[in-house]
Each structure stands twice: as structure tokens, then as C-alpha cells.
């Protein structure tokens, strides 16, 4: 199934879609709303709110339709409305823009590593920890999932962002 899902039928991903930085692009994808309406026009600063509470999101819509929802990685959409409040039933990773790969601290040296809203103190390289979480996750065997794929300039594909929705029967919907 992975060969089929990540095969040569992957759509071309060399276009500009919403914004050239993470926070507005994530907000646009998760809400379907121009992020400017939320005041998200650049990478969020710690004091910015992010996605407003009670905003309808793709994960919430998919979850209501019977899909399992999990975010493993970086949120960077504010702490006012964290992943578990936006339709994700599982979150593992960091809330801020970046972390030290080994210390799991944010730009100001504060710890930023969690699972489902609870701080964690784990040892390991963050990329490896994220991959391990994805493999052992309760969602790893789920057929109904959302996957993001990006094509790098060198032609190598890596799973990095959500672009395909795999249906209940394993069919690629988008």
C-alpha cells in the first residue's frame, strides 16, 4: 500500500499554494480560510493567538466523518487553540516554531516537547522520536488517514505535509 500511496502518481508539488512560511500555510490548510482573516500573515510570534477558538478545521471535519486524527510534529499555530482543540485526537511534538533537536527546547531555551498536551522529557534526536511515534502510534494501522507529501527539488519524495487523504477503503481521495 505504501508503494501505491507514495508512487509516481503523486501530484506535482512545485507550486506556491498559500504563503511561503509555515504558520499561515498551516492555518489555511487546516481551516480552508485565508489566514489573513485571523491575523496570521507570517510565522507566529509567542504572543500571537493563532487559529481562533471554535474555528471549523479539516481534522475536526474528518474526525466527525469517522477518520482518526493525529498530528506528529510541529504545531506553530499558537497556544490559544492547541491541536487537541482543533480536531486532532493525538498530538506529539512541539508547539513552537523550532526546537533544539536534542534538548527539545524552543528558541528561548524553554522546554517544548509534549504528547497530548502533557510535557515530556525524552532523550533522543527529535526527528527520530517523531518517526518512532508515527510507527508505534495507535494510528499506524489505520486505513483512513491523512498524509502529506512534498517533492524536493532533487526529485526525492519525503513525507512532510498533508496533501493526500486516504479513504476508508484505502483509496486516495485527493
Features:
two-stranded antiparallel ribbon, 6 strands, 174 residues, four-stranded mixed sheet, alpha+beta, 4 helices
Give a written overview of the molecule.
The chain is 18% helix and 18% strand. It contains four helices and six strands, in the order αααββββαββ. It has helices at residues 2-5, 22-31, 58-64, 126-136; strands at 70-74, 90-94, 114-115, 118-119, 145-151, 157-166. It has a four-stranded mixed sheet with strand order 1-2-3-4, with helices on one face. A two-stranded antiparallel ribbon has the order 5-6. β3 (114-115) and β4 form a beta hairpin.
Q: How would you summarize what this structure contains?
A:
The protein is 18% helix and 18% strand.
Low-confidence runs of at least 5 consecutive residues: 147-168
Spell the H/E element sequence: HHHEEEEHEE
- Order the strands across the largest sheet as they lie in space: 1-2-3-4
How much helix is in the residues? 10-25%
- The average pLDDT value, as a whole number, equals 78
Class computed from helices, strands and strand pairing: alpha+beta
According to DSSP, the number of beta strands is: 6
- DSSP strand (E) fraction? 15-25%
Radius of gyration: 16 Å
Number of helical regions: 4
Q: Tell me about the largest β-sheet.
A: 4 strands, mixed
Shape: globular
How far apart are the termini? 16 Å
Give a topology summary.
Layout: H1 2-5, H2 22-31, H3 58-64, E1 70-74, E2 90-94, E3 114-115, E4 118-119, H4 126-136, E5 145-151, E6 157-166
Parallel strand pairs: 1-2
Antiparallel strand pairs: 2-3, 3-4, 5-6
Amino acid at each position: 500500500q505504501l508503494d501505491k500511496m507514495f508512487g509516481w502518481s503523486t501530484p506535482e508539488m512545485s507550486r506556491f499554494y498559500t504563503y511561503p512560511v509555515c504558520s499561515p500555510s498551516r492555518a489555511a490548510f487546516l481551516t480552508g480560510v485565508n489566514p489573513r482573516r485571523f491575523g496570521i500573515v507570517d510565522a507566529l510570534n509567542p504572543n500571537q493567538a493563532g487559529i481562533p477558538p471554535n474555528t471549523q478545521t479539516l481534522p475536526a471535519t474528518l474526525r466527525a466523518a469517522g477518520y482518526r486524527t493525529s498530528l506528529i510534529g510541529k504545531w506553530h499555530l499558537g497556544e490559544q487553540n492547541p491541536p487537541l482543540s482543533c480536531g486532532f485526537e493525538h498530538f506529539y511534538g512541539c508547539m513552537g516554531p523550532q526546537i533544539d533537536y536534542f534538548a527539545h527546547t524552543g528558541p528561548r531555551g524553554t522546554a517544548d516537547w509534549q504528547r497530548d498536551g502533557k510535557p515530556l522529557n525524552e532523550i533522543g534526536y527529535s526527528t527520530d522520536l517523531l518517526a518512532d511515534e508515527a510507527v508505534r502510534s495507535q494510528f499506524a494501522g489505520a486505513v483512513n488517514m491523512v498524509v502529506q507529501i512534498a517533492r524536493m527539488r532533487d526529485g526525492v519524495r519525503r513525507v512532510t505535509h498533508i496533501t493526500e487523504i486516504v479513504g476508508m477503503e484505502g483509496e486516495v481521495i485527493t
